[in-house]
Design a protein that fits this description.
- By secondary structure, the protein is of the alpha/beta class.
- Helices cover 46% and strands 14% of the residues.
- It has helices spanning 36-39, 41-46, 48-52, 78-92, 106-115, 132-152, 154-164, 178-183, 185-192, 196-210, 221-225, 243-252, 268-285; strands at residues 3-6, 9-16, 21-25, 57-61, 97-102, 120-126, 231-234, 256-258.
- An eight-stranded mixed beta sheet has the order 1-2-4-3-5-6-7-8, sandwiched between helices.
- Helix 6 runs antiparallel to helix 10.
- The longest helix has 21 residues, at 132-152.
- The chain is globular, with a radius of gyration of 18 Å.
- Mean pLDDT is 95; it is low at 287-291.
Length: 291
Amino acid sequence: MPFVHTDGIETRYDMIGTGPPLLMFSPGGFNATLEQWSSLGIYARTRPLEHLARHYTCIVFDRRECGQSGGRIETVGWNDYVAQGKALLAHLGIASAHMMGGCMGCSPVLAFAAAHPQMVRSMVLYWPVGGARYRLTSEARFAEHLAYVEQHGLAQVVALVREGRKPFGADPRGGPWASVIARDGDFAERFALQDVQQYEHLVTAMAHGLIDRDTAPGAEPEQLMALQIPALVIPGKDASHATSAARYLEECLPRAEYWDAAPADQSEEATAARLLQFLANADKLTDLPPP
């Protein structure tokens, strides 16, 4: 599977299918690997990647700090995830693409559209994260990591990750860089030698930036209301994917289509038909030049 190096960070990616480009920001929270499109929850059940690849060139990748992609110790925000996706498109020579996010992957799609609307042909927002419970759970995850660092130090974080090899979402004690620590010995060594206090400030700022509201994060409502990009919103309904977050996006995005289907009614056949119908219509309506 190919890798690309941009801005000092390695990205693992794949291109599946043929047709217009579709950049897909993976679901899975802080374990957003390209495999999640086929193995995680609702996506394993509805198999969107398999159906979309029959009509589109699906560009899937491990988000930075996830899976086999690299990372950098810095206050990571939504625009840093945007930069990774933008650099991947530039590497592939693609000027504009449809974009799809699943779960937490919806937020970088929103941020991408706000920052570079001319590059986004349409947005599919599949089970966007959000809601009060999501915020509280996410804050608790960062807090657990910081408490472990405070008590045991950064060298012990490295030892913990190397022993368990679990991503941040599976074991919060390992922190947001757990996947990179597990696969990159040089990175792990640099991580352990950081100043603890500076690191704690960095992680606190990262948490505040990524988890700043009780609805779908990624862009300000004023930015969303200014977007003239076709969007399809597919709602979830659980503690991490509150239906209210999906409704919020419907409210803010001027060209949003809201698929008013309960998760139980989002069958493989119905989901594939809705996705392909939306993208086909977006191809007809967009005034962007060909990719």
